[in-house]
Amino acid sequence: MARSPAETVKDAAAAAQDSLAGSEAERLHGQIADLQKDLARIVQSLADLGANQGAAIADTVKAEAQRIYAQGEAMAGRAEDGVEEARAYVQANPLKSLGIAAGLGLLFGLLLGRR
What we know:
Blueprint: H1 5-92, H2 94-113
Helix pairs in contact: 1-2
């Protein structure tokens, strides 16, 4: 059987459409691959940024910890000075110190005994 010109045109159109659809699919696959590469680069950039930010935060925390430690050391030094002053006062005024201690003991005993 001989094919009619309409069938030939129809088959040619279908083949052209299949060819066009194939090239369109290939183009889309290429674009998807490019997007995947771009996404991988973005993820890597974010990971690098996070690592840099983490290091900066760690440095800040370390500096703040050192500052707080130094303040604690200064306070401990002042407390030791206060203890030394109190010790010197007690040694210079033993009876007065004993009277103050007895009075404070009595006061605390009365306050705590009323519970």
